[in-house]
Amino acid sequence: MDDAKKLEEFQVKIDAEIKIEPKDWMPEDYRKHLQRQISQHAHSEIIGMQPEGNWLLRAPSLRAKVVLLAKIQDEAGHGLYLYSAAETLGKSRTEYLDELKTGKAKYSSIFNYPTLTWADMGAVGWLVDGAAIVNQVSLQRTSYGPYARGMVKICKEESFHQRQGYEIIADMAKGSPEQKEMAQDALNRFWWPSIMMFGPHDSDSPNTGNAVKWKIKRATNDQLRQSFIDKTVHQAELIGLTIPDPDLKWNEERGSYDFGEMDWDEFWSVVKGGGPCSKQRLKHYNDAHNNGEWVRKAAKAYAEKQNSKQKVA
Ligand code: FAQ
Q: Do 81 and 151 touch, CB atoms closer than 8 A?
């Protein structure tokens, strides 16, 4: 069958909502698109452990520490599912990780911001995981089978993460005036970076065209951002916090909130590695990887020893 015919059949499958599986024929651009998106998603989960890891030793109670630890471990698990899904596209985990280590690969802009107070643990769970869920729920219906199935389990865990964050921020918002102030300050600092997680406006998003045609994306960046904002404003009101956007206003006609413009210079600068913690995040990842060299060597030597024993027996 020639490629034009294969391409036609591929699009028929996509349009009929039939999942594409690793051994199926797929256009090279579809494969590359997924390698890029899934690996960036995996890197985000792995680098995303750092801002919260910063607070593990300073959690205000044993309960808070256990919950935060479980949440961070879940993020590591999400990274591993996603690397596995990305590997089914014919590129090894080592290759993907090399792209992360050298700074060639992107990961979500949000993880380049610092977490300065305990209230930030609330803001990250509530807003960052909340934004991640809105995106990932739609990705449960993405056209590539391994990615879609990975998303189902990830979404279940993310909703626990969102609730743990909301619990922290809600407790602080109803605490002492200083605690309420910390909660509001965390919201002020994390609001705009959280809504930037959805990426540039659709008109400035070069990847959206193919992503929608191939049903990799089931909703566009702007649609998902709007859905997140509509869900979150009420949650802020419930706990007496104010979204730091003077242009935020309910639009009766659209049945949605209107909101202000994001600072796109800041967004692109962070995406290109100029975020407040970009260098620190990459260095920390590389140091951890290098410090683990002896563990990998020992595990390999042990496996070789076991193999040679089995051969002798
Ligand atoms: N940050 O053409 P588009 C989480 C890049 S998971 C950095 O619109 P696309 C869980 C984009 O890659 C969070 N870069 O791109 C957690 C592209 O560059 P490229 C991660 C960004 O792919 C919580 C260029 O700009 N979630 O948080 C960003 O169609 C708490 C042009 O953009 C996912 O990855 C950004 N915000 O749409 C973990 C979900 N936005 O590659 C720990 C899956 C855009 O051409 C703690 N990914 N860029 O050089 C997606 O849905 C999409 O890839 C988007 C971007 C929506 C992120």
A: no
Give the DSSP H or E segment for 251: strand 249-251
Instruction: Please name the residues in contact with 283: beta carbons below 8 A apart, sequence gap of 6 or more.
Output: none
Tell me the CA–centroid distance for residue 249 and ligand 1, in Å.
27
Q: Please return the burial class of 265, using the count of CB atoms within 10 Å of its CB with bins 0-12, 13-18 and 19+.
A: exposed
Say if residue 312's pLDDT is above 90: no
Cα of 38 to ligand 1 centre, how many Å? Answer: 9
Q: How far is CA 120 from the centre of its chain?
A: 17
- How far does residue 107's CA lie from ligand 1's centre (Å)? 7
Contact 164, 71 (CB under 8 A): yes
Q: What is the mean pLDDT of residues 2-14?
A: 94
Whole-angstrom Cα distance, residue 247 to residue 83? 40
In the structure, which protein residues have their CB atom closer than 6 angstroms to any atom of ligand 1?
36-37, 40-41, 44-45, 48, 75, 106, 108-109, 124, 128-129, 132, 135, 196-200, 205-208, 211, 221, 271
pLDDT in tens, 146-196: 999 999 999 999 999 999 999 999 999 999 999 999 999 999 999 999 999
Mean pLDDT computed over 102-114: 96
Residues 14 and 216 sit within 8 Å (Cβ to Cβ): no
Backbone angles phi, psi at 249, to 5 degrees: -155, 135
User: For the residues of 149-194, what is the DSSP string, one character each?
Assistant: HHHHHHHHHHHHHHHHHHHHHHHHHTS-HHHHHHHHHHHHHHHHHH
Residue 310 confidence (pLDDT) = 82
Q: What is the pLDDT of residue 309?
A: 87
Closest CA to ligand 1's atom 15: 207
Q: How confident is the model at residue 311 (pLDDT cuts 50, 70, 90)?
A: confident
Ligand 1 center from residue 274 Cα (angstroms)? 16
